[in-house]
Batch of 2 targets.
Target 1
Amino acid sequence: MRIFLAIYLFVIIGAMGVLGFRGSISTKPPLEVFPDMDRQARYKPQAENEFFADGRNDRPVPAGTVARGNYFNQQEVFSKDFEDTILGDTTFLEGKNADGSFVKKLPIEVSYELIEQGKEKYDIFCAVCHGAAGDGNGVTKPYGVLAANYHDERLRNETDGYLFDVITNGKGLMLPFNDRITPEERWAIVLYVRALQKSQNPEAEAGI
Ligand code: HEC
């Protein structure tokens, strides 16, 4: 009987010890019986790192890296006879002719789908600053972002290649977008900016 009482007491104290403190708040580190893989050596995105000279955790893509396929097209990524047809095509990739001057017209076929694609990407990437109509009245204007108005005479007379270059490399206070918008999408945006320009300065005998 005494042994039974001792075991009984032991079980009660044990159960209260484990269950009684559930939900109570403590600032001490928790007891970890099985730590599993809770803590691992890792670098957090966008944090500092003393190891690299530029102090960044996120490593830039090595110069000259060529993307093969993408997330949606795994076939391309691993295919043996992968060929990059646009590699070295400065007209398409940089909006420049061989002599370094900007191309006048976009180097890809214009279609209604391309304008639609341009509108979609414009609304995502540009409208916040440049406004839905491209007049520089974006939602960031009250915060002091004086984005350009596409309907300025100068910008209406610029070449398509120049606009492509501004999107690719940024200009003045504007950030570059080459890391997040593909060349084709950039051309689509250029086309859409042209459409916006036409919409604000219609000519009686419009032609594209
Ligand atoms: C964060 C705000 C911001 C976003 C987003 C932005 N821009 Fe700009 N953009 C600016 C500012 C600010 C300027 C004026 C730059 C300067 O002259 O300092 C500018 C200027 C321009 C110019 C005129 C360049 C010139 O020669 O004066 C063009 C064209 C342009 N942006 C196109 C775009 C397109 C297309 C996108 C979307 C892919 C875009 N911008 C996204 C802020 C932005």
Target 2
Amino acid sequence: MTELRIFRDDKPAAPERVLTEGNAIADVLGKEGILFERWKADVDLAAGDDQAKVLSAYAKQIDKLKRANGYVTADVVRMVPDAPNRADMRKKFLNEHQHSEDEVRFFVEGTGSFYLHLGKRVYQVICERDDLLSVPDGTRHWFDMGPQPRFTAIRLFTNPEGWVANFTGETIAERFPTFGE
Ligand SMILES: [Fe+2]
């Protein structure tokens, strides 16, 4: 289930607020300038479907999103629980970082957890199938796919070259609950 947990950034032990209803999550995030929408991921993917298959299965939605929000390109990240590179992939974005490009993810399968550090709060957004989340450029955040990741997310870009992680050097992520364990 999609879930938003709001923490004080100095109190990682327990969230101040937990929301599980899509519209309420969209409202709260929208007030912080974060785009969150529930879309319809209406194609069941097969285990062996590669990037081209996923992109063509969701061509209609991708096209709509590109037109609505000005994204230029799309690609696919697909993780399975026994992927040999899963530990390295998980570690990659597990520390607080920023990008000079929006981080846009449309989850069409599985689940993963974003943590957005906004002012004195951390917004943990546990995304699942149907969720579209856009983390604006310059937003401090991290992402945990868990030790046995399972998700397929379509990534949308206005400028893929800008999507490089600039780590803040903060260790805040280590103090917050991890995902999926
Ligand atoms: Fe990121």
